[in-house]
Design goal:
The structure holds 2 protein chains of 2 kinds. By secondary structure, chain A is α+β, with helices and mostly antiparallel strands. Chain A is elongated. Chain A starts with a helix and ends in a 6-residue tail after the last helix. Chain B is an all-alpha fold. Chain B has 5 helices and no strands. Chain B starts with a helix and ends with a helix. Classes of the chains: A alpha+beta, B mainly alpha. At the A-B interface, helix 2 of A face helix 3, helix 4 and helix 5 of B.
């Protein structure tokens, strides 16, 4: 029996498949490519993605200023979840590859966050190309830099995690010209807002005499006036993203910022935590109490072990043993002719009479 | 631990298997309970959000507290000499089932995968505070009454 059980267990162990992927993704975050098992384990256990990966840069990138890049994932069939993890990196070595290591700052990722790794759900297939925009702040030091786009995704067959990385894309970061109208290096856009709320955005600019904001909602572009460096984006009715950019004019050449994305979302789920904890404590006490107050049912003896009837049957075949103590009449020896010895009582005669007669040696009664 | 306990309680319910099933059921349940705080702490540390901002988390809390209450009740009742009858075994199994459901919901929260499709995990039933207070008082009264019963018996 033990051998059979051991064989079954061994068969179960042998029949397992090795899959180290997280099919549902791990969520957007700041991640290195070799994320130590948190995404798709080490690249050595992955398959190679067939995706064609690309990064499109603006014509000019100025040190410390905002810029927009577009990443593309093309020609790849993924798992049924249509989920691809994209990571923006600075090398392909799997270590020290975060954009921040070179001074890049992710201002807005494709999902409206500030992460270098995002998970995108879209219609990925061998016939389509999926593009996503990122807003970055360039390193503050001019020079030559590199950017890479890495992807991680499942496969249609399942089982094996796929991983891929683009070729190096060179970025020449230029010194900012004097008097260039620009957004202040300290200024950051707002990425998220709640549905139904107007959004007032205050611009902080340098070398700028006037500015104009363009708001893109779908294919429609509207001009929003900027008054004292402030402008208002109307409230959103539904969850979604609007894009806006600012055109800065001053003594230097006019500058157009990248498109900033403002995502409207429904308020998150919330609960009165006091009520929740109280209810949890109440359920705990009630659960324990209801179990403890249970009266034990009449114990039903397992019939397999109940031999009572058999014992009773056996009992009737054996003669009853009289355990009652036998009452023996002890009246003592017959009284001699002269009667009780002097000073004796009948009670004493009953118990000591025989001994008295033996002592007399030759008494009339033996 | 909880799974082992559940299987042992099932054997108790069916009155099958070795007689050690009762011992295994209760000790495994105790082991699972002792490990639960560790699971809670590691779960909180690995949770991406702050506070209870997801109905799954709220339901996890309610289910695990209910399960822990039932489990402690089962263990204490056994310690006080209660027999392992059908109700006792069923209560043990319910406690284990609730705790395993809680663990499954934790997996769904972190990995977005689940096999428990049929459970309405997105719905949270929150009592008003006064109802919870009444339940707490009721629980304390029941616990007190059961303590007197056990002392008398």
């Amino acid at each position: 029996m033990r051998i059979k059980i051991a064989l079954v267990l061994l068969l179960m162990v042998v029949s397992t498949t090795i899959s180290t992927a997280n099919p549902g993704g791990k969520g957007d975050d700041i991640r290195s490519r070799d994320c130590a098992g948190s995404c798709h384990a080490s690249s050595s256990s992955n398959g190679i993605s067939s995706a064609t990966l690309g990064i499109t840069l603006p014509e000019e990138v100025y040190a410390g200023l905002l810029m927009e890049i577009v990443t593309s994932v093309e020609g790849v069939d993924v798992s049924s979840k249509n989920l691809v993890g994209m990571a923006l990196l600075i090398n392909s070595e799997g270590a020290k590859d975060l954009p921040a290591n070179d001074g890049w700052e992710v201002i807005t990722d494709p999902n409206g966050g500030i992460n270098n790794y995002v998970e995108i759900s879209d219609s990925f297939s061998s016939q389509t190309s999926v593009n996503r925009s990122w807003t970055l702040r360039a390193p503050s030091t001019p020079g030559s830099y590199e950017l890479f786009l890495a992807v991680q995704h499942g496969s249609q067959e399942g089982g094996v995690a796929m991983s891929g990385i683009s070729d190096s894309v060179a970025v020449q970061v230029l010194t900012v010209p004097e008097n260039l109208p620009q957004l202040s290096p300290e200024w950051k856009p707002i990425n998220l807002r709640m549905i139904g709320e107007e959004t007032i955005i205050t611009l902080e600019t340098l070398n700028t005499d006037s500015s104009t904001v363009e708001l893109k909602n779908g294919a429609e572009i509207t001009i929003i006036p900027v008054i004292d460096g402030e402008f208002t984006i109307p409230a959103a009715v539904n969850p979604g993203t609007v894009e806006w950019r600012v055109i800065l004019e001053g003594e230097g050449p006019a500058q157009t910022s990248p498109w900033f994305r403002l995502t409207a979302q429904t308020p998150g789920w919330s609960v009165d935590e006091t009520s929740l904890y109280l209810q949890g404590f109440a359920l705990f006490l009630l659960g324990a109490g209801l179990v403890l107050i249970q009266r034990p049912k009449e114990e039903t003896t397992d019939k397999r072990y109940d031999n009572t009837e058999h014992v009773i049957e056996l009992d009737t075949t054996v003669a009853p043993i009289n355990t009652q103590p036998t009452e023996v009449a002890n009246e003592g020896p017959p009284l001699p002719a002269e009667g009780l010895p002097v000073g004796w009582t009948m009670e004493q005669w009953k118990y000591y009479g025989s001994e008295h007669l033996n002592n007399l040696q030759g008494g009339e009664v033996v | 631990m909880f799974a082992l306990s559940g299987v042992a309680f099932l054997l108790c319910l069916l009155k099958k298997g070795p007689l050690t099933r009762e011992t295994v059921a209760h000790w495994a349940l105790l082991g699972g309970l002792l490990a639960t705080p560790l699971a809670i702490l590691t779960g909180i540390n690995s949770s991406p959000g702050d506070g209870i901002d997801n109905p799954l988390l709220a339901n996890k809390l309610l289910l695990s507290m209910t399960s822990a209450g039932l489990a402690i009740g089962v263990l204490v009742r056994r310690k006080l000499g209660g027999g392992v009858d059908i109700r006792h075994a069923c209560t043990g199994m319910i406690s284990v089932a609730l705790m395993l459901t809680t663990a499954g919901m934790g997996g769904e929260y972190s990995r977005n995968e689940t096999l428990l499709f049929f459970i309405p995990k997105e719905t949270v039933l929150i009592f008003p505070i006064w109802a919870s207070v009444i339940l707490i008082i009721l629980g304390i009264v029941i616990l007190g009454k059961s303590a007197i019963q056990h002392r008398v018996s």
